[in-house]
Amino acid sequence: MFPSVAFRPVRLLIISVVLTAAATLVAGLGGHVMVGVFFGVGLLLGLLNALLVRRSVESITAKEHPLKSSMALNSASRLAIITIVGLIVAFIFRPAGLGVVFGLALFQVLLVASTALPVWKKLRSGAGSYSAGGDVLTVSEGTEVRSTSDD
């Protein structure tokens, strides 16, 4: 199972909307509704970043000779833009705008968990096989996950 198969943007959108509603409700009870709203903006910026990552990976790997440097440059520029937008919103709308930064941070946790857990469950269920000699874990036909000893 590829991690890209485990990436479910619609599920992440629904989770983000539910978390935004909960954060807005809790922040509203404390008298700071806009913190919850900005938290939701941060979650949506994180989702936008994840969608752009997928699009970028698909376009770069579709090339005959994909370069790591183009992937690194693309990632660095995209992360810089998302971070700058988040910090500008946080600065302009401070203190409530800090919710954007917290939303971005929580989205990264959600993304890793929602992508890694299905892959981990698949591995734990015995779908993959492990060869101790070559430190290669075969997850599905033609897909290998190498250990750090290969680096």
From TrEMBL:
The keyword Signal does not apply. It is a multi-pass membrane protein. It holds the Pfam family ATP-synt_I. Keywords: Cell membrane, Membrane, Transmembrane, Transmembrane helix. The chain crosses the membrane at residues 12-29, 35-54, 75-93, 99-120. GO terms for cellular component: plasma membrane. It is found in: Cell membrane. This is ATP synthase I chain.
